[in-house]
Amino acid sequence: MNVSFTKKQEDYIAEQIKSGDFQNASEVVRDALRLHEVYRHRVIQDLKAEIEKGWDSNSSSRSIKDIIDSKKKKDA
To answer: Per the record, where are the segments of Basic and acidic residues compositional bias (predicted)?
Structure first.
């Protein structure tokens, strides 16, 4: 398998090896993939939990326009 990295990513990998935390680039990439898997799993679980909260809650009496207008006021 061949993987291409940007210069910034290559520099980061080299820094991690130089720090002594990793022996080689493969270890850095494997660690990054493990962390990505944990992060992705957590995001999906959080989204599922929010969807469940939505399904389990009462319906809102606000219209879509009311919700959008409320959001615009908060951002202003």
So the answer is: 63-76
CA atoms of 58 and 20, how far apart (whole Å) = 54
- Note the pLDDT tens digit of each residue in 23-39: 999 999 999 999 999 99
Cβ distance 24 to 17 under 8 Å? yes
The letter for the amino acid at 62 is: R
**Cβ(10)–Cβ(3) below 8 Å:** no
Model confidence band, residue 75 (pLDDT cutoffs 50, 70, 90): confident
At 56, the amino acid letter reads D
Answer for the pair 28, 22: CB distance below 8 angstroms, yes or no: yes
**Identity at 33, one-letter amino acid code:** L
Residue 24: count other Cβ atoms within 10 Å of its Cβ: 11
- Residue length, the chain? 76
